[in-house]
Design a protein that fits this description.
By secondary structure, this protein is an alpha/beta fold. Helices cover 34% and strands 20% of the residues. It contains seven helices and seven strands. The chain has helices spanning 3-7, 83-89, 102-115, 124-137, 151-160, 169-175, 187-204; strands spanning 10-11, 27-37, 47-58, 63-72, 118-121, 148-150, 208-209. The strands form two sheets. A five-stranded mixed sheet has the order 4-3-2-5-6, with helices on both faces. A two-stranded parallel ribbon has the order 1-7. Helix 5 crosses helix 7. It is globular and about 45 Å long.
Amino acid sequence: MGCQRVLNKFKTENGQALYGACAVYTHMIFTVVDTETTGLNPSKHEIIEVAFISYIVDGEGNEYVLNKLEQKIKPEAIHLASEKALEINGYSKEKWKDAVEFSAVLPKLEKVFAESDFLIGQNLIFDMRFLAKMCERSGIDEIKFPPYVDTKALADVLKEKGVLKRTRMDYLCEHYNVTWEGRAHTALADCERTIKVFEKLQDEVPEYDLYTFEEPYTGY
C-alpha cells in the first residue's frame, strides 16, 4: 500500500494534513475490523462473529501483518435473530459450538484498538455501534475507538462521479476484481476484502477524511 500514500491523504476538518511526511514516524499501525451480527438493530440483535487484521507500516512504507483474530461469539438471544442475517453469515449451532462469550474476546479488541492509529472498515459505524452495545449489555465500560477510514465514504465519492454504480462490498469486489480466501460475509474474509478494496479506492480518491465514533460517516 505504501505509508506515504496512506498518511498524506488524511486531513482535518480545516483541510490541514493530519499526518505529515512518512519519514517523521518510525511506524504506524492500522486495523481492519468487521463483525457479523444477527440483524441490523444493535438494541435487539447481537454480534456472533468478530475479526480484525492489524498492519504495521514502517517509516519506509513497508507493510506487515502485525496481528490477526477471528472469533465466533456465543449468541444470547438467537430467537430474536433475523433469518436473513443468519443465512447471510452462515450461522448454525454446529458451526458455533466452540463460540465464546463476548467478554472473553473484548480484552483483545481493547488492546488492538488502543495500539491502532486508525481503523478501516466498510460502513464501520455499524460495527462500532454493535460493539458498544455489546459492552453495555455485558456491564463493561464502553470501548474506546480510534479514528477510522470508511471505505463506503470513498466509494460514495466515486459513485457521485459516475465511476461506480453501487457501493456495497460485494459490488466493489466484483468491480475491482478482488479475490480473497474463505466465504464472503464471514468476519475475517470481509476484513481481507475490505483492505483490498481500500487499496483500489485510494488510488482513485485524491483525499478523504477520518471519522470518529462520535462523529461518524453518515452517507448511507
